[in-house]
UniProtKB/TrEMBL annotation:
InterPro entries: Bact_Lucif_Oxidored, Lucif-like_OxRdatse_MSMEG_4141, Luciferase-like_dom, Luciferase-like_sf. This is LLM class F420-dependent oxidoreductase. NCBIfam families: F420_MSMEG_4141 (TIGR03620). SUPFAM superfamilies: Bacterial luciferase-like. Coiled coil: none annotated. It comes from the Bacteria. Residues 22-121 form the Luciferase-like domain. Gene3D superfamilies: Luciferase-like domain (3.20.20.30).
Length: 282
């Protein structure tokens, strides 16, 4: 299994590709063990951005978060994975998932589609220990344990991590994403966090249903989200406070946490990742 280290940098697709290449180079220099490239819904079968990031860095693991199973061809994707493995052995982790029913035309039988996609990757010889599934619910978490190295859950809290570990068992990789705002101004941090969470995530049924499974109620997920929900999903405060919140995932059974920084106006993610590296990475 690929070793990701304790913390990774999660880079949102809102940043253009040249910026993310530069961010990845700096994240590696800061000591982050992995760079997660948010990809959205587009066709990424050629994995060109991943290749550019791998070429620009020396040892950091580069992971996709995620390649969408509806908009990508598994045969072409497997061939691209082979190409990257040959050029950069042991440094690429394929994150794949089913996306959201609201954003994909023809979204039917998602679990069966996941199985068929994995069957196609297997047929091309893609190794299971070089891929993770974006899994939230019990059924897909079990699939991640059976058909992949593990899972990369998004927009979750340590309570979900604990349940995921119980379903995955001890041998699977559990690498949740967690969003943060490095700011001690609670009003400003909640403003950024609420803008991020409310649209689109509180308008996407898979995320809302997962939050309800985790013990949040209808008042938490209504409108733009309760303060409790926003504070849990988007940690904020000093680096020490954020570190303590992220540690909850490790106490619950995570192997790795991918940190997504919500920047201030006119900033990118690197100021926050730099500040946190001083606290998190020794």
């Amino acid at each position: 299994m690929i070793t990701l280290g304790r913390y990774g940098a999660w880079l949102h697709p809102v940043y253009d590709d040249p910026s993310r290449i530069g961010y990845a180079v700096e994240a590696e220099a800061l000591g982050y063990g992995a760079v997660w490239l948010g990809l959205g819904q587009r066709d990424e079968s050629e994995l060109r951005l991943v290749e550019q990031v791998l070429d620009a860095t020396r040892h950091v693991v580069v992971a996709t978060a995620i390649v969408n199973m509806w908009t990508n061809d598994p045969t072409a994707l497997a061939k691209s994975c082979d190409r990257l493995e040959a050029r950069h052995p042991g440094r690429f982790l394929l994150g794949i998932g089913i996306g959201h029913p609201e954003s994909v035309t023809g979204y039917r039988s998602p679990y069966q589609h996941m199985e068929s996609f994995l069957d196609a990757l297997d047929a091309e010889g893609h190794p299971r220990d070089r891929r993770v599934l974006a899994a939230l619910g019990p059924r897909t978490l079990r699939l991640a344990a059976d058909r992949a190295a593990g899972t990369h859950p998004y927009l979750t809290v340590p309570g979900h991590t604990q349940q995921a570990r119980r379903l995955l068992g001890p041998g699977s990789l559990l690498a949740p994403e967690h969003t943060v705002v490095v700011d001690t101004d609670t009003t400003e941090a909640r403003r950024r966090g609420r803008a991020f969470v409310s649209n689109p995530y509180l308008r996407l049924s898979n995320y809302v249903n997962n939050l309800l499974r985790q013990g949040y109620d209808e008042t938490d997920v209504a409108g733009d989200g309760s303060d409790r929900l926003i504070d849990d999903l988007v940690l904020h405060g000093t680096p020490e406070t954020i570190a303590a919140g992220l540690a909850g995932h490790f106490a619950a059974g995570a192997d790795h946490v991918a940190i997504q920084v919500l920047p201030g106006e006119g900033e990118g993610p690197m100021p926050g990742l730099r500040t946190l590296a001083g606290q998190l990475i020794s």
